[in-house]
Amino acid sequence: MVKRFKKSFIAPIPITISTQIYGLLPNIYPHNPISWIHFFVKYLWIYFKPIPQRSISNLSVVFEDNLFKVLNKQHQERLWDYGFFGKGTLSRSELNWYSSTQKRLHLGDDNFELSNEEITKFRREERVKFKKERTKEQELELKKRKNEISESELQELDEIKKTLIKFRKNNKLKIKQERQVPIEYKDMRPEDQEIIDEESMTLQEIEYLQLSAVETFYLKLIDVIDVFEADQLTLEDVFYKCCGTKTPKPDNQFILSYIAYHHYRSLGWCVRNGIKFGCDYILYKKGPPFSHAEHGILIITEANPKSWTEMQTVSRVIGSVRKNLVLNFIDVPTPNELNEILNDSDDQKFFRLLQLYKVNEILYKRWIPNRTRD
Amino acid sequence: MSLASKVKTNLQYQNLWTNVTIHQVSDLEIVSGIPPNKLSSVDEENQVEWIIPKMFSQDKLSVSEIQNWFSKILELSGDIPRRITIAIINDDSTIVYYFIHNGITKPNQN
Amino acid sequence: MNDDDFKLDIEDEEVYNLKDFEPDGTDYQQNKLSNSLDLIYSLISEEIKTHEKNCIVGIYLKTQETIILKPKGNFFRDFGYSKTLNGNIYVFLNKLESLYLLQRGNLIIYLGNEKFNHYLDGYINNFNVNELYSLNLQHFYSFLCSSDLKKYQVFAYLKRLGYLIKEYDGLKNHPPPIFQIGVQDKSMYQDIFTKGFRDKHYFGYKEIFERLRVIPSAQNFESLQKNYESDFEIHFNVWKPRNNFSKKNLPVPDFMICMVDEFPKINDVYSLLNKVIKPEKKSDTKPKSNKVQTRNNLKKDKEKTERDKERERERERDFKLKNNGRNVILAKVDNGVNFISLSEMDFESVSLY
To answer: Domain of life, per the record (chain B) (predicted)?
Structure first.
């Protein structure tokens, strides 16, 4: 049996709230006084219980090589399950290099859970098969046009055409999984031998969870992570590391990216990087395992306006994957306004910094008059 | 870890390339390697690919910079490759690969 | 990226085979190509003929308008405006409308002169248009400056698709809505940072996100509070084809179009949106199926309707997000006409939690 691995959604942010531990509050029905009593009894009961987030210690992030790394397995899992933060350095998003490499080299037990990457791989293989058939078809079609085709080839062409139609109509992917035959150490690629212990045949973990600058600052700002270099870094340290300078200007790339990131994260969206689609971010309702991203976000500032060519290029790419292209025009403060706040020494200054900026959202879409007549 | 070694690890262990080597040509790091399958359907057969690692930034890429890559690879291999691959590394560890062709090529049939 | 994002739905085999990927040097392909070329040539070489009955006569005046002496036909549903001179009702067309009808062969245009003006002013009782010099297409085109030409390309393109078009004339009959700013004070939660939400019991993620929501964001219609300096103007009001169209009592346009060269900045976008009237748009909710209820599937249906309701709410929210703001269409003319629709959005008004 081939199973597609589906996780249930836990939470949009790495904070454990009281209802997760003690259960939901009962519904109130205005005309039913008993429902009010139920509600308050439960509310009071929770009220005197310990606050769950207090017993959860901060997750550790290491700043090394100019990167923010999460190495602890439990911490990686919590960041992924609670809001899909970070990315496996050798995976498309969720950390799964280790298990997929084990599968590839037949090291572990038979494991039939398929990751999204593997499903994509199967799809691509199907596509390659289709293209092979199509090339054959085109060759035969050319012969036919040149009147050089034999009777048997003509039959073959007919057959291929039928297969091609089947390929095109078939939307279901049949995934076959081979039984695992152990691969011997000497038959492995030298690259794989380097990371496998010949004695115990165990695979070395070389992947970790990497947080981007905006993710790190967000998590640090809400105080759910501790960031270590040689010593522990303060929120201010992390801010300047992310900016890449001690004297950031109002349109510093990190600050602008962060404004958009914080805005959408705080509206409950799962915000992931949009580099694959030529935009700044893509927004998921819950997260990558549950649905496709619906919006692509492109940041624009007064100082860095976009040209038509740039706009049309991004719009084409975003359109071809059925997402909305949302332009995010960010109003930027003056250098003085920014510096005044950065010179403050209290903890709340980043909060005030965020309020210096303003987000303006515009949906960009091609209008095709042919299609809107009725 | 240099950009080139990040790309090397990515090619070796996520994309399963072999013979991945980092070449240092003056101040430029160039990666070469062999992919598990040929990268383009128009290729005759699987071949050595040349990769230029580059950090993602807002800066524009100039034609002379690209020209320089081609001539550096010429120094290395004695041949100007038909195409090179640019590996753009993002700060979330995503690496996106794009072909840059030396001149005009026939489009791929999708 | 998921691969089925790119999947094409090809229903039958005929669609496929339509296009060859590259030249293959065969006669078959050459014939196919020349056949379709021939078809195009025969289409455009066809002489444009109009029945005498449908032909309209107009005189081009110094005011750069064409006066139509006897307006008739469907075009005047949206074309031109009427004016009474000396007890006669005439229709006046602007240059774009005139050129469009001229190009279609529906209109013969003569160049006005002094004598004709005297006739209009009522000094002369009779006038024969044949005394005037008639303008051909090339001549009329020469009256258009380059920005007119671009406008004409957009105008004619939409006309040919059946749209009804008038030049934009401000917000005359439709006063802009009054914007009332909602609660936007985001400085009230100053204490939460660095405390990591350990201060109290939280009963939902909504409470947490509300506290994190500190970055100001523009609300729909908020730009009405300000005047923006901008060179961008609305040029056309456009309506979908419809029967009950009256020039005297213009409905709210379905689309409002601005001709652009550069891509606008946010101030330009807001300046344009402030000049726009928002048409009513309703989300299309699918009608419920009239399935017969049996006791057996009642419970199942109940579960289903819960999920359906949830989906319904989601659809409603997505629709609001995209359609609750104002919208303007940009028309960019280069080698062809490109249209871009810009709509204001306010993610904060439809937050997920």
So the answer is: Eukaryota
